[in-house]
Structure formats: structure tokens, C-alpha cells
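Self-study notes.
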Amino acid sequence: MTPDPNRPLPTETFLHNRTLHVGNQTLELAYLGEAHMAGNIFIYARVQKVLVLIDVVFPGWLPFASLGEAKNIPAYYQAHDQILQYDFDHYIGGHVGRAGNRTDVLIQQEYILDLMHNCEQTLNESATNNSMIGAAALLGPVSTKNPGNKWAAFKVYLDVLGQYCANITNEKWLGRLGAADVFEYENAGAVFESLRIDYGILGPFGIS
């Protein structure tokens, strides 16, 4: 790791929980899993009812590309339930210019579930022969123009499915979350990869 004087290594670490007392202030720290990435911690000020968890919920906005560049998408989904287990009035998620509240967390959780549902339906629809996004309809023409290049055909397949799912999802979320038109495609792509890798939903490419 390249030394960075602006981000020195910690002098204290903890495995699951740590309570900090500074003057008359108390912060409860908890590591509940990867969420956005390994090491992301919940920081809770119980008296003030303030919860901090960076790069998971983006109050009022769509998550940044690929669900905030989440490294573990199942854990990212779970983090929303973990957040809602806290008693808080104010949520600090980082970026996008404002703090949030419990309603913001619930709205993003609804969005995440919609996106996952739409992507799963899209993936399953691509396994049907008469669909415009069916694997046969998409892979054949690309394979003809790119003989022997299977990645070219599969990339077109994933790109078309990603845009299709993004369009469906945006029918509900454009105008409800900021910048839904900016990162929906990238978020759909991240969900497709998670569905295939983490959940074994393979559409037309299942093992038979």
C-alpha cells in the first residue's frame, strides 16, 4: 500500500463493536459486514439519533454507478435492513449534498428491490425464444459478424439487457430520485452480474 499522509493507518482496530467516549460525547461503532466494501463501519450517536454509513444510501439520489461501486452486492442489499434496525432521525451517507432520514433509506431500499426484480425478470425473459431480448435473437447476428468471438456476442447480450432493465426501472424512478437517467444502466449491469454470480440466476445460460 502506498503511504498517504492524509490517510494514516489506524492505531486502534476492532472486530465487531467499539464504543468511543470523547468528552461528554459517545459514538458507537459497529462492523456488520462488507456493505459497500470491507471495513465500512456504522457510526452511531445514540443521544443525537444520528447514524453514519458512507456510500450505501444516497439521500434523494440514485446510487452512484454500480450501486456505489459496492464490492459485495448481497451485503449491500442487507445493509439497508441493518440501517433500519437503528433508532435514528438523521442519516449521513456521504456525497450528494444533504443528510437523510429514515424515509430516504426506505425509498432507496424500495428502489433496490425494484431494480433487482426488474433485472431478474429481464434475465428470465431473455431465455424465451419469442422475446426481442431473447438470447437467440441477440447472439445470432453478433456471432455472424464476429465469428469465433464469443465475448462480442455476450457483451452485446449484457448491454442490451442492461439498457432494457434500466428503461423499465426508470419508468418509475425518473423524477423520484435525482440522476436516475445518469447511472441506471451501470446499476442494472451490476445487478445482472450479481444475479448470475451470487444468486445463480443464469437466464438462457443455466446448466442443464
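Second protein, same conventions, sequence then structure:
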Amino acid sequence: MSQRPDEPQPGAAPGVLAALIFYGGMLGVAWLLGVVWLDLNLLVWPEKVQGTTAMHAVLGAGVGLGAVVASRLVERYTTWGRKLGAGFGAMLGAMSPGQIQVLALTSGVAEEIFFRGFLQQAFSTAGWSGAYGEWVGLGLASIVFGLIHIGPERETFRPWTYMALGLGALFGLMYLYTGSVLGPVIAHITINYFNLEHISRQAQTSAENSSPEDER
């Protein structure tokens, strides 16, 4: 039986349950180590908080949309960008709207609370805390964030690691400037949502173009 063209094709994208378990576990680790052990506030850095909630949200949305536009330009005008996009399409396949929404939301919330709210704040207030402590924390959290974004084929996905390192630093600067994870969370969700939607659409188009015509 053939699928209708508007239906997502089977792919290797993580399911909703797997995403909830993985990112729920990440939040659990951040809570145990950050809140219970280090007595940190994972949503705000009290000593750094400035600006309004609305300003944090607008900043996050602006940064996120700017990163999405930049990724489209890279894919359009560079060979490695197109190769990276094709690699993601092959790895994730076409996704349903529900998968995209859950993956974007859970990854954006959990990763920013873990890497910014917990890790960056913990590194910044560790033994090297002082005049440069917050920059040490920013650098270390960004490096770890970049290192977890390594794809199965290093040659294809190496640019993804570098981009994650840069975005991690940008998210960290937003967190350092506002003292809140709200801006980084919104930026991260925005980037993941639009990029996953783009990857899914390309994967579905590719599958339709490469599949044989239905028998009459």
C-alpha cells in the first residue's frame, strides 16, 4: 500500500517517548546536581538578572530567527552546508508535526537549563570563581555543549559541532547578560523547530522524488 504524498515517510527520527525520557533525564541530573547539591536556581542567576521578561523573550526570538536565516544562507551558498543538510535528512528522515514540536520544545528547554542554568553557573562559581570566573564558566559550558553535538559521520557533521560551539557561546552570553535562561530557551526552541521542519520537508521531498511510480 502506498502512502499519500502529504504523509511523512518513515525515518529514523527519535520518537516522542524517547525524547521525553532522554530530556527528562537531563533535567533530572541538572536538578540533582544543581539544586540539591549546589543549591543553584536553574532558571535565573540571581546576581546577574537584569531586564524584563518581555525583553528576554524578544532577545531570544530575535537571536533564534537570525540563526535560522544564517543556516539557510549557509546551506544555499556553501557545499558543506548542503552536505550537512543532506546528512541530517538521511539521519532523521521525514517527521510528523508532533515529533518536530516535541523535539524542539524538549531539547530547547532541557539543554538550556542543563548547559546554561546548571553547568555554566556551576563552572562560573567553582574554585576559579573571581574576576574571570564567569568567562571560564561560559567557555567550559560552550565547549561541552559543542562536544555533545557530534554526528555519526565526522566529516559530514563536523560543521555542526563548530556551529553548536558558536551557538553555545552565544546562548551563554545571553544568559550572562540577562541572568535568565528564558532568552536562550526561546532561541534554542526557535532554531530547532524551524530547522527540523526544514530537514523533514527536504527528506520527504527527496523520498518522493527517488521512489518508483506507483503501479497503475
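Instructor comment on the second fold: The longest helix spans residues 182-210.
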